[in-house]
Amino acid sequence: MPPRLFLHFFRWYCHQKLVDHIEGDLLEVYNERLRTKGKRKADWRFVVDVVFLFRPAIIKPTELNRDSNLIGMFLNNFKITTRSLWKNKASSFINVFGLTVGLSSCLLIYLYVAHEFSFDTFQEKGARIARVIMEYSFEGSPETKRGNFTSTKVAPVFARTFPEVESSVRMTDADMVIHQGDNLIKESNFLFTDSTFFKIFTCEMLEGNPGKALDGPYKVVLTESTSKKYFGTESPLGKLVMTGTGDTPYEVTGVIKDYPSNSQIKFDFLASFSSLGENQNETYWDANYTTYLLLTGEHSIAPLQEKVTAFMKTEMAGSGASVNFLLEPFDKIHLHSQYAAFTPNINIAYLYILSAVAVLILLIVCFTYINLSIARSVNRAREVGVRKVVGAARSQIFWQFISESLILTFVAMLLSITIAVAALPSFNQLTGKQLIPSAFYSTPFLLFAITLTATVSLLAGGYPAAVLSGFQPVKVLKGVFKNSNSGRSIQQSLIVFQFAISVFLIVCTLIIQKQLYFIQNKNLGYDRNHVLVLPMNEKMLPTIDVIKKEFKTNVDVLQVSRCVSPPVKIAGGYNMRSSAMPENEQIAVTATPVDEDYIKTAGLQIIAGEDLTEQDSKDVTAEGRENRIYHFILNESAARQLGWTPGQAIGKRMFMGGDRSGFVRGVIKDFHFESMHQTIGPLVLFTEMRGRQLMVKVRGRGLTKTISFLQAKWKKLVPDLPFEYHFMDDDYSSLYRSELQLGKVMNLFSALAIVLACLGLFGLSSYMAQQRIKEIGIRKILGASWSNVVTLLSVNFIKLVAVAIIIAAPVAHYMMTQWLQGFVYAVEIRGWVFIVSGLVAISIAFVTVSFHGIKAASMNPSKALRTE
Asked: Which of 99, 279, 282, 724 is deepest in the core (most CB within 10 A)?
């Protein structure tokens, strides 16, 4: 069909005015093609271009109302979008894959972060609740200690004394053995609390009266799931739960709805505090309980704190000790407190890190989309030019490309949600959380997904749409259009940012892993390998020597020790003084009772004096406290604070508190009995007939048989306590749960960031190779080898990666320096970390680009020269 006849057809089909102003441009384009391509090709190319791109650009306002016009535009845009995406399968796949991976990562991180930020938001009075932190020191002691513990005296005294305190509650958790027929079940979430619990904390009572449920000893309230576990569908009210080795009966007085997973207070059993027989000791010491206060107003903490400080100065006057209590907002504990709650806290900085990682991954994906769009702009320039020539407005073309971005992102979002749901169990295992699939259908999540889809669509598609819609039609259709310098600058800048993010994440991951390796492999001063920890109770104390002897009949059992706390974490707070110090001068110290086998089992190093003996343990069992002789093992820090060298300390008389008098038996080398977030402080081990745990040191060989042997002996010797164990390594790892989880998450998402950056570079280098195919053909004819071609295509990208390394290195150094400051004992940041990270980034970039370089170099030069 002759071009002029074709134009007459469009005059009939469209408005005369619209066609008149484009006829000259169309003919100019046709004449240019006629000169360069020949008449046959020019005619068909003209017809195909206009038919394919003309109809969607023109909507007749006289035939369609405004609503129909918009619908028609949307449908036409959708058709063009799907055709374009299908035509460019490679770039569409790269974009969809990248967006899917990036959005999946963002969705999972969002669920995790949102869950942590939502902790305790269901507590209706949460803004008026404060936790009490004890702070104490002694005259002559340079150290002040704090902890989330109080005595039983604090809650009732504060409630009576201060009008700002509306109510108070005391709590302590315990491991309890429950009898279910002949079965013994150990329950870890057994929480003792005052009856005021229901006045302070939000609970949905399903059965029972909250006002009377815990108003006397040996009463217990069950959660709904616990009630079903022990009583099925029957009502448990009035029934008895048999607990402990003494078969103590607790009457069930209520059933409450299970607390959600985002609660810092966790329990399955809620027992009356009066059951402990320690309703109120008239001392601020013996601080083994947690106290919460319900205040009269949300802003009462600051004025009440001033009153508490003044009150405690009066209370402790002349005692030789300073005791104060700090008030901590309940709704700040989970993310901001350094003191543990009933569930593990998390440092809010780690949530910020994870959120930043999600944003960085999303930026990499968006940069990939922008880069590929700019690279394809030469191929799509003709499409834009023809549509503009036939009357399409710039806004129409702009929204056409935004539509492409929106459709791609929407498809990726659907795939991302599917992948996130499937990956949730693995993600839970990685983070140690119990996120549930129903969270994907919650209103906040859906709003986040919709907002994220729209944001990514605009962020990724906005710049390409603005650039493409601004092309000049005549210049484009004449074939003289090339990518502008500004476009190339944008591409290069985005590549730099992509790899800067990747290098930043690589550096951070290496340093985090280095610190975690340091933590896990540092010489702690004790041996935690192949040490089993078993729970014990007071009923076992009379027969503990028999149990230890029976265990050691197995040649693979090396040592057995009774203790209150293994060396991984010792938290008992005491005070000590030497015989040369006045009675009113004390030094705060961490101490724990042990037996004569503790040092050998834990592998502690004695540097002066001797180990404890069996007779030392017997000396503290004499009738009358005045006849009891204690024997002490000091660490180096404790000896130093008492003014002794290790050698001088041996045989010296010292006191712990006012009721433990004895002599120093030995001095051990300092070891880490707390996490590496704290410095090593003074520690005292002393003989006393107490114990909550057994440490069993075994050989590494035949571990399964050894544990089976211990289990058989346990059932025979301790029939009323279930055999349960864990390794001391697990206790140690729990000190760094947040750091270990952060390390695993950083490993995963850093790898994803690198993959996504390489994916974008892969697609971009493909377009670059295609654009330079003619140049490559000429170079090959002139004798260039495949290595020359690979170098030609790679060198510019390698330079950009080098710039990215220079940008990322100082930022990563600063961020990791800040993170390491949270550890008293930390690794140094050395230069090899940045060198390795840079080499990894350069190698990955080179391999990625080389693929297309080798492919282009292997092409027949004659074929390349025929390609326009």
From this structure: 99
Rg over alpha carbons for the chain, rounded to the nearest Å, is 37
CA separation for the pair 718, 485 (Å, rounded): 81
What backbone torsions phi and psi does residue 621 show, to the nearest 5 degrees? Answer: -105, 5
Mapped onto helix, strand or coil, the DSSP state of residue 429 is: helix
Other CB atoms within a 10 A radius of the CB of residue 398 amount to 19
Encoding tokens for residue 800?
A: 């950009």
The label of the residue with tokens 């035939």 reads 63
User: What are residue 235's phi and psi, to 5 degrees?
Assistant: -75, 130
pLDDT for residue 14:
46
Overall residue count recorded for the chain in this entry: 868
Enumerate long-range contacts of 706-712, CB under 8 Å, 24 or more apart. Answer: 706/554, 706/556, 706/557, 707/532, 709/554, 709/556, 709/557, 710/532, 710/534, 710/551, 710/554, 710/557
The secondary structure of the chain in percent helix, strand, coil, rounded to multiples of 5, reads: 55, 15, 30
Q: What is the pLDDT of residue 21?
A: 42
Residues 420-455: tens digit of each pLDDT: 999 999 998 888 888 888 888 888 898 999 999 988
CA distance 695 to 423: 38
Contacts of 20 (CB under 8 A, 6+ apart): none
Q: At residue 371, what is the residue type? A: N
Chain centroid to CA 797: how far?
A: 34
Which of 569, 549, 572, 567 lies closest to 559, judged by CA?
Answer: 549
Going by C-alpha positions, the residue among 635, 664, 660 that lies closest to residue 648 is 664
Residue 92: the pLDDT is 77
Q: For residue 628, give the nearest of 670, 657, 588 by alpha carbon.
A: 657
**Phi-psi region at 277: left, alpha or beta (left = phi > 0; alpha = psi -120 to 50):** left
Report d(CA 359, CA 45) in Å as an integer. 45
Token pair 């002490």 is at which residue?
632
Distance (Å, rounded) from C-alpha 278 to C-alpha 790?
Answer: 80
Could you give the 3-state DSSP secondary structure of residue 211?
Answer: coil
Write the CA distances from 495 to 372, 760, 801, integer angstroms. Answer: 11, 9, 8
CA distances from 439 to 111, 112, 131, 251 (A): 8, 10, 30, 37
Phi and psi, residue 273, nearest 5°: -65, -30
For residue 728, the one-letter residue type is M
326: closest CA among 166, 150, 169? 150
Report the candidate in 305, 340, 334, 284 with the shortest Cα–Cα distance to residue 165.
305
What's the CA dihedral at 257, 261, 263, 269 to 10 degrees? 50
E strand or H helix that includes residue 193? strand 183-193
8 A C-beta contact, residue 45 and residue 32: no
Q: Which residues of the chain have pLDDT under 50?
A: 1, 10-23, 52-68, 480-481, 867-868
- Give residue 376's pLDDT: 66
With b meaning 16 or more CB within 10 Å and e meaning fewer, what string describes 632-666?
Answer: bbbbbbbbbbbebebeebbebebbbeeebbbbbbb
Among 696, 719, 720, 716, smallest CA distance to 706 is for 696
Contact (Cβ atoms closer than 8 angstroms) between residue 148 and residue 133: yes
